[in-house]
Amino acid sequence: MSDWPEDATIQRFSDATSSSGVMVFAEMVDGELLNVGRELMGPGREMADQLGVSLSAMLIHHDVGSAPQDLISLGADKVVVVTDDRLEHFTTLPYARALSDYLMNVHRPEILLMGATTTGRDLAPRVASRVDAGVTADCTKLSVGPFYHRKTKTVTTHMLEAHRPSFGESKLACIMSNPQQLWAPAMATARPGIFVAPSSDSSRTGEVEDFTPNWADNDFDVEVINVRRGGGERVELGHCKVIIAGGIPCGQTGFREIHDLSEAIKSNGIDVEWAASRAAVDAGYAPSTRQIGQTGQSVRPPVYVAIAISGAPQHMAGMKDSSRIIAINTDDSCTMVQSADAAIIGDYRDVIPSLIEKVNSGFTFGL
Amino acid sequence: MDYVVLLKQVPKPKEMRVTAEGTLDRASAPSQINQDCQHALELALSLKDNYGGRVVVVSMGPPNFQMSHITAMERGVDETVLLSDRKLGGSDTWSTGYALSGTLQHLGYSSDRNDWIIMGGRQTTDGDTAHVPSQVAENLGIPQVTLAETCEIESSYATVRRIVEGGSMDLKIPLPCMLSIAPTAAALRGRNMKAAVKVKKHVTKDDRGKDVFKDGASIFRLLSVDDVGLEIEKVGLAGSPTIVAAAPKVEKVTRDLQITDADGLQSIVEGWQ
Ligand SMILES: Cc1cc2nc3c(=O)[nH]c(=O)nc-3n(C[C@H](O)[C@H](O)[C@H](O)COP(=O)(O)OP(=O)(O)OC[C@H]3O[C@@H](n4cnc5c(N)ncnc54)[C@H](O)[C@@H]3O)c2cc1C
Ligand SMILES: Nc1ncnc2c1ncn2[C@@H]1O[C@H](COP(=O)(O)O)[C@@H](O)[C@H]1O
Predict the structure, then answer these.
(1) For atom 51 of ligand 1, which residue has the closest CA?
(2) Which of A78, A157, B25, B29 makes the best surface tag, with the fewest CB within 10 Å?
(3) Residues B71-82: what's their mean pLDDT?
């Protein structure tokens, strides 16, 4: 998009929209900064430097602890902090109030980034409609560049280029602000685990600004009755050489066999863990700390064995980059089988015992 | 109680084609009710079974969306409304949220009545943003819960379970409100003979042999941008704050699938490097 005629009018996005700076909404859950917020400080800082503007971060939580300093160490020039006892768990309206109040009444950044978490994907569009801004979902690449609008012969420079997979991941669409409806901030949510958090430098300094939104009476109308987040043992799956994951059809018995299979592999000296799909976790066959996928852990082991898992996009999101995928499924047309390197078409009840037998006689999944 | 379902018809995911401008070629692809919208529809129908009331389907799209409306009617939907206008072509989610909320207001759904609830799907397979429900809710000034899996209604509020990272949460949300329904909710029921017979009376074929509602069918309303009173500068390609600037193809990583059994697996795996 960098070719335009010499007589084109040139304007800078931030001038045309009276906005400045890059902002990252850094989500906190249970008093902890989510990784995706740290990750976004990477592209956030990079774009701010390219644009020659400052990078700020926004925290909204009942207790932010040391998160402001953490964000400054990761590259923020300023951290805006909204705290209130009623902000322990995310609900849309108070968060939308805090953000939109700040954007409309204190400072309007030219770019606003959020994690594409269950929170970010709920909040970003609501805020976008309230403050009149364009928003792009689920980006995997962020950059800045110019756009030439043929109809009005106008080049708008220093615009957010929000890239996202589309049409079944076969294309990478680049979404930009519409020159006929130039509004700031240009908003985007970005998938967790895509960007790499910058290294932390505790000698960096920055400003911390407390902000109290003008709460409306009904902002707290939606009540959180209870939250179930799989506490208990923390299971690190990141380092495993083999992950054996089970789906909902496995049931209690199948998961016992999956456990046996992973124990058998372990006794061959292989670093292995067992895991589960969300459906299996919801059914109570596995703790949520072992869930793989969009709302669980993301892994990329040398070998991922998916037993009776259909391959829903939210599951694939957490394991599709595994070096090798082995699927065990009765349905040869399911996504998991179609995305695998090798598949055994059959009932797990028959397949797992024969795999255990192989492992007992020395099979190590090639490792 | 009115259960309003925001329903979108989408090209069957495997048969989507993209035009030179990077927009979807909807005209030629076979279509279906978007998967997540089917779950929203089912939830609305089961709430109607439990608590009584009416299910009203609202869509924005081309006239051929009537196909999905007829399918929905055969499941027990009471009325469908289609906002259809060339001026809406190219609308992004901000504009779609504006246009759909305007349509709901036109139909009399306002925040000071509490005898209605809207259910949308979590996400569409073609728009693929999960933005529209939040943006409809914002424009209507009503609260929202996205990623809901279950919903129960108690006089002036709903109790819902929402998916979050590592688990779920239960929320109490006052009516009227917007829920976006996750694909982990209950699947859509089959045709209901009584309903199917009833809708048949209102259906005819268009000149291409596709099912459409008869002119003046009492169960279907076709609305235009002017009917609803939408501001023209807020809809369509020109009224949208975002545009697709480019859409280059990406190479998909394909794996060489080998179908095998436990014996075969060992030799395949040992051949991997
Ligand atoms: C916002 C959101 C976030 C989500 N996050 C996640 C996430 O992080 N992780 C996740 O996994 N899911 C997630 N989901 C849920 C996801 O959409 C699917 O519902 C889930 O992954 C399905 O789990 P499954 O494969 O175990 O079950 P199913 O989809 O029911 O698949 C079962 C499979 O087992 C096969 N099968 C049946 N019987 C046998 C047998 N006897 N032997 C062998 N094979 C058999 C079937 O052919 C089928 O392929 C999320 C959903 C939403 C909406
Ligand atoms: N054109 C439309 N007509 C009716 N409902 C829509 C439309 N677009 C989106 N929706 C609703 O919003 C949900 C999410 O869509 P999307 O934001 O496109 O992923 C869908 O499942 C529908 O319930």
Answers:
(1) A314
(2) B25
(3) 98
